[in-house]
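Posting this for the archive.
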Amino acid sequence: MSGQSGRAGQSGPGHIGGSRWVLFGALLIAPNLALNRGGLGTGLWLVLAWWAILSVGTYLTYAADKRRAQSGDDRTPEATLHLLSLLGGWPGGLLAQGRYRHKTSKVGFQFVFWLTIAAHEALAIDYLLGWPITTALGSSLK
């Protein structure tokens, strides 16, 4: 039974494990708190729409790149995948990596990918704390 997919407790290509969902949810806490605290009104919906559209687009870009990798076609540059993550599509990238097992074993890629997530987390936390890091950085540049 170990080779069958779809069984409880098993993972493989096409399966997003429970731990990845927990990680995904945890990484959304600070950005969502920041958005909710921001009281952006109509702007909040624009930010959420941007985030959702970019995440779906990033997910689809990973999926297409995985298909091209398997068929030997031209690939999506890693810089493009990182830019999509940096612009806000990292949730889609994280889910696509789990779903397609794509780019998960490339240490250099993972390092940069997680830096983009860390940047989003740091900005959200900095905002929630009243911008102390941004203020300190701004003061040190003067």
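Residues 41-133 form one domain. Confidence is low (pLDDT under 50) at residues 1-11.
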